Amino acid sequence: MIDFSILTKYSDFYMKGLGNVIEACLIAMAGSFVLGTIIAVFRIAPMRWLNAIGALYVEVIRNIPLLMVVYGFYLLPPVFGMSAVDGFKSGTLGLIVYTASYIAEAVRAGILAVPKGQTEAARASGLTYIQTMRYIVLPQAIRIVIPPIGNQFLNIVKNSAILGVIAGFDLMYYADKISSDTFQYFSPYLFVALLYLVLTIPISFGVKYLERKFSKAR
Amino acid sequence: MDFAGAFAWDNVVFILKGLLVTLEVALISIVLSFVIGCILAIVQYAKIPVLSHIVATWVEIIRNLPLLLLIMFTYIALPDIGIKLDPFVSTVVALTVFESAMLAEIVRGGLRSIEKGQIEAARSSGLTYVQTLWHIVLPQALRSMVPPTVSQFISLLKDTSLATAIALPELVHNMSIVKSQNVNYTLPAFLLATMLYLIVNFALSIVSRRLELRRA
Questions:
Q1: Could you say which of A104, A120, B37, B209 would form a disulfide bridge with B100 (CB–CB 3.0 to 4.6 Å)?
Q2: SS3 letters for chain A?
Q3: Contact B165 A164 (CB under 8 A)
Q4: ipTM of the shown complex
């Protein structure tokens, strides 16, 4: 039932796929963290129009499927006369934009958890709003938001499988390739599942560890 | 861009039919997932030797796999071992397997939030373990689980879009067909599908917020 010869015969496909998954995920983690933090700051900044932009972004992106966000990068640029974006890039961009909306909510909750008195004290001692954020609020908020952000990073790894739908050269793409080469489906996909678990289980345990550690600290 | 052409009656009806399939799959899956998720959580909560560990491992494995992989696996890998399912059933099966594991974690959180004292009080007033679960723990836990379950339903509804990979005629799949008729239909079809997702999910989030307010 399980054909282990596929694993050795197509090891370079699996390695290539795994490499691309890791690359897409690392880019998406960094990108969505930066974008998500910016959106979170937008949502709580003392400027109405920035709040509105932040809220609109989060509400819209969180309520449409990741696949639609990815398709937005994959299908729409040619419509507006721009050059087409390949599967890997549009998939990674989609992951960034999609995950940023979830990270923004986590970061916002973290920022709001820092007592208001601290912001007021910092502002009263002459720090600008940006300095207050940078030196007082964000360093404390980060501790609170690390576990939920870890969860979002885990989601990035799982969601990255979507690259397979748009020929993004990830594990799902190569699984399909190996299947059409060998006319076997069970084993190629089973090995892909194991490779995903190798990536996700350590992150999952890491997140649980951090959750326990930070809940004890408080 | 050709909005008039893309939004011809037949195209709009076709896309709406896709939405109907999306809702159908999502509804069936959430009901099945909820029931199975509760069972998985109770088995874990009851600390039955061996079985609880098996369930916990199963939940952990499923939660850490991409849903797209589960959908592909159910549809194209299971026939290799003699299980053939059509796209609709495959999607429901894959979504149920995935979401029941997600919901099991939510239910488990709900069960654990019930104070030990209540269980001890129920047991010492003569209720059996099963009675305590059924009359004391579950009713309270279920109430605290409604809002997270609704938000899980929203994510399930979004996740049905992945079934486009196995050609289930749902919203994204039907949008793709309309779009492929004509290059000028791409943007209108894309926008219509996006709007439909937004409308349905906004309505659901409003429901979820109402439920949360009622609890508070």
A1: B37
A2: CCCCHHHHHCHHHHHHHHHHHHHHHHHHHHHHHHHHHHHHHHHHCCCHHHHHHHHHHHHHHHCCCHHHHHHHHHHHHHHCCCCCCCHHHHHHHHHHHHHHHHHHHHHHHHHHHCCHHHHHHHHHCCCCHHHHHHHHHHHHHHHHHHHHHHHHHHHHHHHHHHHHHHCCCCHHHHHHHHHHHHCCCHHHHHHHHHHHHHHHHHHHHHHHHHHHHHHHHC
A3: yes
A4: 0.90
